[in-house]
Amino acid sequence: MHRVVVVGGGFGGLQAAKHLKDAPVAVTLVDRRNFHLFQPLVYQVATGSLSPAEIAAPLRAMFKGQDNVDVVLGEVRDVDLAAREVTVATDLEDHEQLRLPYDTLIAAGGSSYSYFGHEDWKRFAPEIKSLESALMVRRRILLAFEDADLEPHPEHRAPLLTFVIVGAGPTGVEMAGQIAEIARDTLPGDYRRIDPTQGRILLVETADRVLPGFPASLSAKAEQALRALGVTPLTGHAVTAIDADGVTVQAQGAQAESIAARTVIWAAGVTASTLAGKLAAAAGVETDRAGRVPVGADLTLPGHPEVFALGDMVVVDGKTLPGLAPVAMQEGRYAARAVRERLQGRTPRPFRYVDKGNLATIGRRRAVGDLKGVHLSGLPAWLTWLTVHLFYLVGFQNRLLVFIRWVVSFVTRGRGARLITYED
Amino acid sequence: MHRVVVVGGGFGGLQAAKHLKDAPVAVTLVDRRNFHLFQPLVYQVATGSLSPAEIAAPLRAMFKGQDNVDVVLGEVRDVDLAAREVTVATDLEDHEQLRLPYDTLIAAGGSSYSYFGHEDWKRFAPEIKSLESALMVRRRILLAFEDADLEPHPEHRAPLLTFVIVGAGPTGVEMAGQIAEIARDTLPGDYRRIDPTQGRILLVETADRVLPGFPASLSAKAEQALRALGVTPLTGHAVTAIDADGVTVQAQGAQAESIAARTVIWAAGVTASTLAGKLAAAAGVETDRAGRVPVGADLTLPGHPEVFALGDMVVVDGKTLPGLAPVAMQEGRYAARAVRERLQGRTPRPFRYVDKGNLATIGRRRAVGDLKGVHLSGLPAWLTWLTVHLFYLVGFQNRLLVFIRWVVSFVTRGRGARLITYED
After folding, report:
1. A423:B424 CB<8 A
2. pTM for the predicted model, two decimal places
3. Which region holds residue B167: left if phi is over 0, alpha if psi is between -120 and 50, else beta?
4. ipTM, interface predicted TM-score of the complex
5. Domains in chain A, ordered, with CATH?
């Protein structure tokens, strides 16, 4: 039996494994976590709208009915391209490593946030990528309001009610919009000593406009929507320092400016999974600045047609595709089809990305969308965003639960998952 | 304005604060957490059926519309009965303490699990009381199956698939039943190398029957239901040691027996909140063996009619009432009514507990109930349990979400919140 090892249970790896159903292959799906995480909604966990399990689906449950998939919980330590073997570190007590031989490897390790060499900033400015970091951010945001309410010295309150989001890509814009809605819609009436609407929400972006990946007219619409919500976009500003007291920003040619803020959230810069670096080193190729490994038009590693790599850890045929779920999903399905075709003696055609568009939401009834050149904003964009995200969310139960949470939030302006939880 | 400080946002404190609505008092509700936790369902978080936010309700959201309640996030450090002042440690950066003067104090600190002087056991045998400990238990249970599946040496698998629950009160019985259902119903088909139904689930209890707080005939029914699910009750057995390798149990007059088990869960023994000890020391009275403070028939501290204490941290008029939500809720409402009556110059009548009954669930369609002498078991008891728990769960949204999760779990035998998450 042809052995396929899929590394990563994100959007790409999941599609690859699913589309190998009924193929004459034995699939091993390796992931560090026992669940698939619906990344595009993690920010809603960070802002207390959704509960973790509502945007995660257990991998084993998904592959219960697909007998040719074996799920392995562990972290890839090494890829031996010559021996065609992946080494996986497990949770076992003696830390025994597992060796998984493969005939085809599909590597989909994803990416993580990059602090541009300032790893010390991470402590003060957490990112929102994993469920754990989302829960930490949720705790920080909610505690900032609690502490402001308790703070006996009014002059110390302002930094507690100042929120800085670094990076105005879709995640940064969504976070800024959500924090504004918490302050404006959810919390008023909750406190007796502070007025949450007095909070300052700053969105810092190096580029000269928010959502730099979108057409300029939509960036303008988004900025307008952010301002209407009470968010102050600081475009054309670079962050030069972050510490416990806040951030320092600087506009080109201007003086550096300190912003006293207790809560800083990082949503800028992405770096490819270390898996990309491992593959590049093993194949003797160079990664790009963001650590991505180059693959051919058929998504395979140079010199290694048996190794597919995909998602936001690769550069496809010299082109950097957007780090979006649809890209990874299409690539995952392509890899699965390519494996099938090869087993039938056929040569797969090159991968072609079908761009279905780009959406970003800012808040209630506020979103922008660029759908194959059709520009949407306001309510139509927001409804499209809602529909698309509900549709792609994995699991009937999760769709229903998230739908209910959204309806209740919309009607009550409340947030059902406003819990401050701690790691014990 | 008459100042009421309520300590604790559990069942008792919540009812007290709610029933002071529209009373001519200023209420300050102090809790370490920003949410009310529906304790009776925490075990369902520990077993992946429910997500944390579904059984928790933010305190501020609950009191948004009740202007005379101020919620304070902090931990009570000290109660000064002479000065009528509570000192609260806050999360503020300089750890500034808050002093809350009161005219009436309502203390409802609850209880925690007691390891009977073996605090070192806690590390190996976590309890299920807080959301955090429930998530840790969930991780341990799910990882045990994952590790068993990965374990290359079959002879090492048995301890990984052995689960020991210490204490066969309602929580222990519920946990044992849930783990049995995970192994029997949820997981089969999920693993390629192990058969989860081969797991051993042992329920250790010092008394001679499970659910010792229930009538003997219902204990027998519960034991029968547990055995049908594959749980082995070890009644009449005391735990004499717990370590990383498992537990040692001993029946009276018999030899001690070692059980190799990776997962041990503690559901035995309860000790009152340290608040009870603080009040007892301040009032010059003795606590009982479980640390409970004695209060009079009107729930007030001896010599301090302005201090009510209630819930499972008190002994009422020499009687230890069961540590159940309805007891605390009735006591909380009583305290609120007593405060109102006194302000009107009336003398409150003594507190009288109305015993509405006792329910424990074992699994799908399996439960027992003792409702004012009417004994229920099987499907009727189970439906009663479901209805009562949904009814008392706080928040319309939570009720709806939990209802949906339960229906989906019942139909699919799946568990929507089977996530292994870590503290970062």
Report:
1. yes
2. 0.93
3. left
4. 0.90
5. 2-32+74-113+271-343 (3.50.50.60), 119-267 (3.50.50.100)
